[in-house]
Amino acid sequence: MSTTSTTSGTSPASPGTSASAAPAPRPNALSLSRTTATATRVLRQLRHDPRTIALMILIPCVMLFLLRYVFDGSPATFDSIGASLLGIFPLITMFLVTSIATLRERTSGTLERLLAMPLGKGDLIAGYALAFGALAIVQSALATGLAVWFLGLDVTGSPWLLLLVALLDALLGTALGLFVSAFASSEFQAVQFMPAVIFPQLLLCGLFTPRPNMHPVLEAISDVLPMSYAVDGMNEVLKHTDMTADFVRDAVVVAGCALLVLTLGAATLRRRTV
Fold first, then answer.
1. Highest mean pLDDT among 73-77, 81-85, 116-120, 226-230
2. How wide is the angle at C-alpha 208 spanned by C-alphas 202 and 211, nearest 5°?
3. Which residues contact 106 (CB under 8 A, 6 or more apart)?
4. Which of 189, 162, 179, 51 is nearest to 121 (CA)?
5. In angstroms, what is the C-alpha Rg of the chain?
6. Is-contact 90 257, C-beta < 8 A?
7. How confident is the model at residue 12 (pLDDT cuts 50, 70, 90)?
8. Which is the most buried residue in 183, 198, 213, 263, by most CB within 10 A?
9. Alpha helix positions (H), 49-120
10. 153 falls in which pLDDT band (50, 70, 90)?
11. Which helix (H) or strand (E) segment is 263 a member of?
12. By the 8 A CB rule, do 129 and 43 touch?
């Protein structure tokens, strides 16, 4: 009788079923080190692209400057809409830059190589959000400082609250850009998402007319759009000396929408464009 063991647990693994051939498990939880490394890489790349940095940081300031002197004969008009646009301009610029930059990572194959490493989609999205969020702080601070202390934007409340809402709007634009980049196959398509995602919010946010004056259907739609709460938050700072409950609600809604969209962005992120 043969004494050779036939137990599967003691037999040598065949080349075709080697454990080393199995794909590495994907990380399930966010890692601070992986997220920070991703953010550092993105910032290092942006440092070599001065035109993108100029677009993100300077364009909102230039737009506010032009707006102030378009209404040079009517400073009250600038005061009434300047605060709202202080939040809208960062949202738009961050949406454009983030969607195009993320799409470029995917079409160049960089994203596929990164996701072949032990790097989760959540780490990647959080890293991008952290990197662009750092630029959003600079962008929002410059735009707020220019509007309040140089262009004479008259606000009743604290300029720091204006800065807070502007920063939240910029982060929301970053989140939306990361999200829609998953559905575009070219930079041109990424830009085309702007009329679909940004323009309806711009028309319904209450910038051109108070939302209660709109058709009831449009007012109901505006109630679920995050830009509406961004404009409402800016108007709260414009009219009240102290932080109000409505301001807190508006800021929480904008922040919550940004977090929700970032989560959706991680869930829909694809390795490459097909």
1. 226-230
2. 85
3. 112, 181, 270, 271, 272, 273
4. 179
5. 24
6. no
7. very low
8. 198
9. 50-70, 75-107, 110-115
10. confident
11. helix 245-268
12. no
